[in-house]
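Supplementary Note 3. Input sequence used for the single-chain structure prediction.
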Amino acid sequence: MSRTYDIAGLRALVGPVKWEDNPILVRQKSRDFYWYSPVLKRELEAVTADVVVTPTSEAEVRAVLAAAYQLEIPVTPRGAGTGNYGQAMPLTGGVLINLAEMNKVKSIERGRVVCEPGALIIDVDKAAEASGQELRMHPSTRGTASVAGFVAGGSGGVGSINWGGLRDFGNVLRLRIMTMEAAPRALELTGEDLHKAVHAYGTNGIITEVEMPLTAHYDWADVIVGFDSFDAAAAYALALGEQDGILKKLVTVVAGPTPHDCFLRHRALIPPGASVVILMIAPHSLDAFEAFTRPYRDARILLDSSHAAPEMLAGLPPNYELTWNHTTLRALRVDPRVTYLQVRYPTDGGLKLIKRIHDHHGPEVRGHLELIRFNGRIAFAGLPLVVFTTEARLQEIIAEHEAMGAMIFNPHRYTLEEGGMKQTDAIQLAFKRETDPRGLLNPGKMIAWENPEFDFATGKNFLFPGLEARARAAQG
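The predicted structure, written as discrete structure tokens, is reproduced below.
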């Protein structure tokens, strides 16, 4: 049965921390973009916290965690709620600790920024711009995502063409986290210790401060190049990605007819059926970019913001809001049947495999590629759009990708392992044992803690018992 928590006792213990227990507002804060997945939409629809607390300082975070530990109430951290896999959704209810008001940018130096967990990425970038700097990478939700949410729930994004992923050494400099114990401790993580908490969904500590690297800021030019075929667009994108002297922050490929059909404010610029390469190019690299592109007879520059009229650009979203999971969002708004996958293609032979998969599935799976730097080499990641029919067919499509040699990071699962490498992360598990001995932080998201004997080889998804009990209670 679903457990009832002593919320009144919690309130008495934590004192004057901002508090919200209106069920409608609590339910709103208990959600992210889980509905991108029809599977998660069904599984997580009933999920809600019992209360939302909004600390404004590390001392208030410590007070909430100490009280919740004493009363054995689970705590789930939330940044801006822009994740896609239920990372910040409280599967067993309890406390949702909303970090949005811990949003100060504390210091900016050459090559680094220190900020509170709820600082929005766009605000950090704006603050850094005064010193000619910017963050190395950001999600497509730059305008709404928080820094700690990105670190705890993301893996890479705009800028990964140069810098790789968030878990690569150097892409997070330091994290300060609070443990879930009788007397919560503040721990400083640097170097290899960062792997304990980066992309851990807050299952083994609450982030209270983040130090991130900065790089040189540019007024990036938004460029879109059109092609008649997806194959030609992908080949061009790879060749451009491998041009080390052309400075770019984004290289994305989207197969037709999605760009014309779904990028509604760009529709007049994109011919029906065209595949596109979406780019962010540094201004000083534009001449070199044009020289590189000129020999591609089938390439047509559809947009170059450095030459476009201001009144035209005023009506267009930035290019990064056409890429990564914003591509999925724009397609969903046009066709509610659409969902997506997350794919990693091999570095060697990637183009051939992408063509094979794309040709095999036809319009049921629509190509969407993001170029990233992986172990020093340019490679393809994919967020292909899938026309959803049934969960069984979705699983077949995943199995077909894997049988052909592509690696799937399943966005239709809410656990760390099933959405990742389908194996226990021993480092994160050991750290959870140290920092969360009662398993009260974001329960249900780490299979290795909940069910150490779970067999990933069966292909069956992990169903957290607490979630099932919660769902039954919500249904009456």
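Residues 117 and 272 are 43 Å apart (CA to CA). The chain has a mean pLDDT of 93.
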